[in-house]
Amino acid sequence: MANEYDLIIVGMGSAGLVAAEFAATLDLRIAAVEQDRVGGDCLWTGCVPSKALLASAKVAHHMRTADEYGIAAVEPQVDGAKVWDRIHSIQQEIAATDDDPDRYRDMGVEFHFGHATLTGPHAVRVGEDQELRGRFILLCTGSRPVVPPIAGLEDAGFLTSESVWDLESAPSSVVAIGGGPISVEMSQAFQRLGIETHTLQKGARILPRDEPSLVEVLVQKLRGEGLDLCFDVETERVTVKNGTKVVHGTQDGEPRTWRGEEILVGVGRRPNVEGLGLDELGIETNREGVVIDERSRTAVPSVYAVGDVGGRYRFTHSAGYEAARAIRDMFFPGKGRFTAAVPWCTFTDPELAHAGLTPAEAEQEHGGDEVQIWRQDLIHSDRARADGAAEGAVIVVTYKKRVVGAHILAPAAGEMIHELVLAMQEGLKFDEVASAIHIYPTVAIAVGQLAGEAAFESAQRYRWLVRRSKG
After folding, report:
1. Which residues of the chain have a pLDDT value below 70?
2. pTM higher than 0.85, yes or no?
3. Domains, the chain, with CATH or none
4. End-to-end CA distance of the chain
């Protein structure tokens, strides 16, 4: 007889972990199905290892540029094996604590390991013969790297954001294909660790979803550190010569080659929908993932999909948010809705954070009359200048005085953007942000100063109310 549950979670990555923890507080009977390792991409192949690598690279960069701070600069002696050992130890520490399956078992979550196939609106088969039944099924199967059809790539061998962490040490040189967040973050880290890096982007610029004026500042920063950023590249084939991998292609129509010990492919991700039995249930999928409504439900009302497989935003924080909203929708009265105010951050140095509309998008969507762009360059930030980190800016986009977009290139931009995300989500006017006192000296005070400018502008309408001296 099949095991009966209130909730069956398929996939225990970022979304699945949040869903399980939330559902466990509701005294529900929960089954979790995982075919690999608990923790998913974030722990094993994404956020955690990449940020650990970036931390090591930042230390190396500070050593190399210490003379800018009145300290003798030294060329760091990077031990690639120890850098990778540190990454692996951080992963194991998290796996043994926050993401430990036993932690979730103590909450009452029952684990089932193996491949999951949906056999009905309320049924999941695990492996060959185990059958689970649940009131609701939550799909959290994530995504995997896209491998482009480049002749010779498979034969030459390549790395992705998943397999790069299986190395025992850092490569001596890298050709990175792709100009999205993963490729750009890794490229800067490699270059700072003394690894000769060439980054090839098919389009005219990297990070095409972000605010172009800030991306251009970041490009100059990366090139200043020695990173070979190549735009308008068409990759045609890969060969191997004397143990070195050679990427052949064109740049601006002219033939070029790029050489490296390794090739890192970072051209996007595709959802993991294969083998789940979705077609048989009438659940539609496309290149973005499982087709869902605003409540994260599929065409089968008892089956929900969130995170990367849901096709909205492929970020850990979005996956966790979607998972919590889906659990609320399943088990509480009313309807849960997904917010469009999803921020993201590319963790280069400086960081590039994004939420809502860019200036161009706002003007296209709303027209230019009531769209205002507020900008403060970090060269005017006392803290940024003191820290030697004055490249960048804070840009806030408003429509009818309300915040509809925010874009920050700054140290810790990912930490700074949240108050603007809250302003967007709550429909606040930008001048209302000025009512919160911002600490000086911080880079974040730039947000408060810009909001203060908006408040001063609003105050001009009431100059006639100013009490003036009669003398």
Report:
1. 1-2, 336-337, 340, 462-471
2. yes
3. 3-39+99-144+270-331 (3.50.50.60), 153-268 (3.50.50.60), 344-461 (3.30.390.30)
4. 93
